[in-house]
Design a protein that fits this description.
heterodimer, A: mainly alpha, B: 5-stranded parallel β-sheet
Chain lengths: ~150, ~120
């Protein structure tokens, strides 16, 4: 290369270094922002989990009181049937706590992996642990009763 | 009175399962994971096992395999009650020796219907 006539697109070393520093700074800033977002999501998930647990425990305690009193109530056949049906529906609905806990737990595990990725991300790919957490067990979108298979 | 071993790491789920089974007239033995269930199964015989899949220490499918190796449990009905609904997991449960696969949330009436159909 002719020192006297450098290529048109060649940059001086100082300019290239400045761009590299700027790029690193941007990456660092982006990484810090991503880490802050992850921390905020983790805090929200923790609060959500606590709220669900508290609501679930309160509902369960109320359910137990009502369920204990139900057999002692004097009512006719149709009222008894309606009461049993309501208790049955409550049993199905109250399982939300278990499912919600599994979903939030899964989200927390994925977030931990993401946080680790933010810290250790390299140019050649993502953390293989991400693949392990892609399949989450709870596919249900509602609280209708699930399927039954007898083998 | 027929006895059912109910296994789930979620206290609220155990409570819902126990309430449903006791209301239907069954004696309920509770365990919080597969290992505890296996320990309790060794000390007594039960008429049916109802187990969750995802649990600490020992999962449901491992519990099924271990129970099938215990004397007196080769033909005991074992139902897996879980949030897992994939065909792959159901196939693993079947291969391990499970009698049936029920996806949460369960309907109390339907659960009792299934239990009455398979219990010995």
């Amino acid at each position: 290369m002719n020192k006297a006539n450098p290529p048109h697109n060649a940059q001086p070393t100082s300019e290239r270094s400045a761009q590299r520093v700027q790029s690193l700074a941007q990456n660092t800033l982006a990484g810090q922002q991503a880490a802050r977002e992850c921390a905020a999501i983790a805090a929200d998930l923790g609060r959500l989990k606590a709220l669900i647990a508290e609501a679930g425990d309160t509902l369960l305690a109320s359910f137990n009181r009502v369920a204990a009193m139900a057999p002692q109530l004097s009512c006719n056949v149709s009222e008894r049937r309606a009461l049993d049906s309501a208790v049955g529906s409550a049993v199905t609905a109250l399982q939300f706590q278990d499912m919600a806990a599994q979903l939030t737990g899964h989200a927390q595990r994925r977030l931990t992996v993401l946080q680790n990725c933010v810290h250790t991300m390299s140019a050649d790919g993502t953390d293989p642990l991400l693949a392990d957490t892609r399949l989450q067990p709870v596919k249900q979108n509602g609280m209708g009763a699930g399927s039954i298979d007898l083998f | 009175m027929q006895s059912i071993l109910a296994v789930d790491d979620s206290a609220s789920m155990r409570q819902m399962v126990a309430f449903t089974l006791k209301s239907a007239g069954y004696n309920v033995i509770e365990a919080a994971d597969g290992q505890e269930a296996l320990d309790k199964a060794r000390g007594q015989s039960v008429n049916l096992v109802l187990t969750d899949q995802n649990m600490p220490r020992m999962d449901g499918i491992t519990l099924v395999k271990n129970l099938r190796g215990l004397p007196g449990y080769s033909s005991t009905p074992i139902l897996v009650l879980t949030t897992e609904s994939s065909d792959d997991m159901k196939a693993k449960g079947k291969a391990a020796g499970a009698t049936g696969w029920l996806v949460k949330p369960f309907d109390p009436g339907k659960l009792i219907e299934v239990i009455k159909k398979v219990i010995r």
